[in-house]
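Students often ask what a 'structure token' actually looks like in practice. Rather than answer in the abstract, let us consider Serine aminopeptidase S33 domain-containing protein, a protein of 870 residues. Its sequence is given first.
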Amino acid sequence: MGGSASKGGETEEAPAPETEPETSQFWSIVPRQYDELVRAIIRPPRADYNVARLGPRRFNFCSRTFVRNDSVLVNTRGLALRCSHWQPHGVDRVAQKLPCVVFLHGNSSSRLEALNQLPVCLGMGMTLFAFDFAGSGKSEGKYVSLGWWEKEDLRVIIEHLREGGTTSSIALWGRSMGAVTALLYQIYDKPPPPPPVRNECCPVDALVLDSPFSDFCKLAQELVSRGQQQANVVMLPSFVTRLVLSLIGGTIRSVANFDVNDLNPIAHVRQCAKPALFVCARYDDFVGPHHVSALYEKYGGPKDIVHEDGDHNTARSIDTQLAAAAFLRRVLNVPSSWTLIPTNPKVATLYLQIPWEPYNRSRTNSHSEPTTPRGKRSGKNNASEPGESRETMKKALYYCNRGNALEEEGNVDAAIRAYRAAIAFEDSFSDAHYNLGIALKNKGELDDAIREYKRTIELKSDHADAYNNLGVALEEQGRVEAAITEYTKAIDFEPDHAEARCNLADLLQSLGRIDDAISHYRKALSARPNDSDAWNNLGVALEASGSIDDAIAAYTKAVDIFPSHWDAQANLAEALHVNGDLKTAATVYRVILDHDPRDAQTAASLGNVLHALGQVDDALSAYEIAVKNDPSDAVTHNNMGTVLQAKGDSARAADAYRSAIEHDASYAMAYFNLGVNLQSSGLLVEAIDAYRNATRLKPSYSDALNNLGYALQSTGDYAGAIDAYRQALVANPNFDSARLNLQQALSKLADGGDIDASDVDVALVQNTSSSHPAKKTTTNSDIVEGPETTTMPPEKGESGGDDTEQSPSSVQEVTVEFDAEYVPVRINRSFSESADQEGAWSSTPTMASEKSGIIDSLSCWFNNITTTKR
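Now compare that with the structural description of the same chain:
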């Protein structure tokens, strides 16, 4: 079930002692064991990993090009499952439909385990699909169920593959919990009655079952008994253990909604009909070999068994992998011409390594360490260094390889212990120090990681990877100059070290040294032209330099290399958005949403583009998706209000503005738009309150001040209106509409005898910029342009010099604009700026762009850059 196994042989359940202890002693032990068992069953430690460890999205293997397509599927409980599918790319795909192996990971593990099977599956002409079960790895969910609910996750995966049209046949390769899942799926996948054979409708063709348990309750009793023996504590009689397990079962039913008594594949395995290969580890002291043997004996379909000299978690040997591959090739009818690797174990060793780093490993078997974030495994195997004891080095290699296997499974603490054991046997083993540094860094223990990287360099001064990873650790500590030095050393020793160049470029870009960053990205791409991450980050740098067209070309190159590079897709969409190519931007945003319908940011950006294109109904739909998935997004609530206002749905628009304010009480723009909405509906008192809130939050908000003046004047408060108009002109001396409103208000007061003409502030009233029309708040392609500023004609009976009493609204110049914020999605930076609209009372909301003041905000952008890390 994926946890770290303790050493030693299998231990049968111990008999009850001849003289039983007092009952009180039993129950003093039960609570601790009870809690531990509940946690171990439904909430074991979740494997935490960086998706970069899954390797590059595109890579070469055996002179063929392969890609990794990541996806998100939703199970029957509404939980998102994170998935990866490795398969041939383009012309290297020998057929439209290929056999697929679905790997099912163990407990406390993740899809990273599938990297162990990747070379043999691809090399034998099959694709490999792996995913994190609900409650595991990166998938959603709080609990695991040791196969019960996992079988339903598997059902979703198989339906996805069958419906995709690119899979000819499906095999399941499960380990521990994954193997139990495969069995339960076959057992409980019942066709409509009456079936001549129980499993004839089971849509899988073969199973590889590595270390499944036969009956969970039996396994739990064995583990409790074994734990008591190892801890040298008072032994509980079997009836007490069974009672505790019964209580645990009740707790689990209420919390995780499954019955542990149903985790008994041994009771139904005779009904299974699909060909199966069992893998039994002779020294497994977690799920004992007798579990696998019992299942094998009772299995009803064609079957075979392979015995492995290892324990529950040790990496499987080349022989075992090749036996599994041969079994799958035979059952799935894979043509021999599709085979890329030799079947001779001695020769196959050279091929069964992680494809993207065939030269860069420290282990001697087929289970290479996956690529880690911004770092790689070491490049030498030190087994033959002079002066080394062969036996000592053999032990060091064993523990180093075990550490690699444990870390791949997400068990970093156990991996660290294994690497330290390797170093204890051979302190000069540079690979062990290097791999220990990676594990420590992944755990966040940067000081210790730095020490191990430096020790690696002491032992091997030209270790470019160690310099690179040392730079990464130093950068994470904020020691940027030291990090630059280490990246530079890595490049000095290995000029084509693409990772070091990209990491250096990322750091230089964050420091504002854009030209230097661009240079290093281009050199990295010269060494590795199909690196979609580097193309994406080059695009970010080019966009920061103002070369938007070149940035679009770089983003396009990234998605051409790997269409499922969603960061690059998002950056491409936003760059197109900013550059005014709104239709293409909308197309790309929709592609991203097809991949992840819950992406609120992308839905909001799509809404902005569609609004700019005048497609208000579609824009509203996009905004609704955005706020459904991120109800706290005040900006999108505000923008949705502007669309509703444009559609004439004033009530819903007001609700949207209030939602924006509810989620961000400091959002002056939303208060302004609410004021516009209320004023348009004749609710002047409420509108005045909204405008006052807007100006309280943003005293220089000239539109809000002008509209406040108009609303006050409409209520007869000329003095208040004049004060508001004057403040609007102080905030923006070129605000022609506010100046005209002030002149008219002063004139009305003067005509009424309430004010002396000599009191008029000539400096504010005099129109010194009449040649400048009222400005729009936003001027780039993000924005939906409203009608131009217009002047409302006098009401009937009004004329120049006429003393007839006039309503306040009959003399006001009106700017028909709304305020709203467009914030296109930006994976690699995050900032938002806005400017104020100018005019008389603004009777329509206007939309403020992310790109306002973009040049002035570059320092903010550099502080928030999150380019792809290596």
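One point worth highlighting: The first strand starts at residue 58 and ends at 61. Ask yourself how you might have guessed this from the sequence alone, and why that guess would often be unreliable.
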